[in-house]
From TrEMBL:
It comes from the Bacteria. The keyword Metal-binding does not apply. This is TetR/AcrR family transcriptional regulator. Keywords: DNA-binding, Transcription, Transcription regulation. Residues 36-55 bind DNA. Residues 13-73 form the HTH tetR-type domain. Pfam families: TetR_N.
């Protein structure tokens, strides 16, 4: 989660985290469908209106790192070092995200998600949104000469890599296998050689 700098931002982030922690605790104890928004607000000791100021829906409570996930992916494009090729930068970020989501502590959460049609539908819409944000970042990179369609295709491959690797018996090996295919597709899409390290990336902060 991105660390806020100002006092007001830190307080807001702490409240958000408290609500998310309370929600997850109740969902895992009682089951997702058995817990209502008012239950979560009471557990977190906040008003329902406060809860909705941080989370737009009940489903969003489960995916509280949604925004951070999206920002990390786009920063892998916009914040990579000068001359760093695109595909390795994206692979490194996906590897880190997969490592996080396949930790033993995450297993009960994914079982809950897989058992809920509403959460699976929300996750799918979230993945599509992440893919669009990533595609926008790729298309806007001045060092990459790719069409919007190619940017969207590569972005969807990257987002799917995360989902497929999460479900694999060996997640990290799956990331490597999938990114070999992504890199091959990128070599065809961007024959200038970015994936080999010859294209100019966007300078980091």
């Amino acid at each position: 989660m991105t660390v806020p700098t100002g006092r007001r931002e830190r307080k807001k982030a702490a409240t958000r985290q408290k609500i998310a922690d309370a929600a997850l605790r109740l969902f895992l104890e009682r089951g997702y469908d058995a817990v209502g928004i008012r239950d979560v607000a009471a557990e977190a000791d906040v008003a329902v209106t406060t809860l909705f100021s941080h989370f737009a829906s009940k489903e969003a409570l489960v995916f509280e790192q949604d925004e951070d996930f999206e920002q990390r992916l786009t920063r892998a494009v916009t914040g990579r070092a000068a001359h760093e090729p695109l595909v390795p930068a994206l692979r490194r970020e996906i590897q880190a995200l997969v490592r996080h989501c396949t930790a033993d502590s995450a297993a009960p959460i994914w079982r809950m998600i897989d058992a809920s049609p509403a959460l699976r539908e929300y996750e799918e819409s979230m993945r599509l949104r992440h893919a669009e944000s990533l595609a926008t970042a790729i298309a806007a990179d001045p060092g990459l000469s790719v069409t919007p369609t190619a940017s969207r295709a590569i972005a969807r491959f990257v987002i799917d890599a995360y989902s497929l690797a999460r479900e694999a018996a060996d997640p990290q090996a799956a990331v490597g296998e999938i990114f070999q295919m992504i890199e091959a597709a990128w070599d065809v899409t961007c024959p200038s050689g970015d994936s080999a390290g010859t294209a100019t990336g966007t300078a980091g902060p």
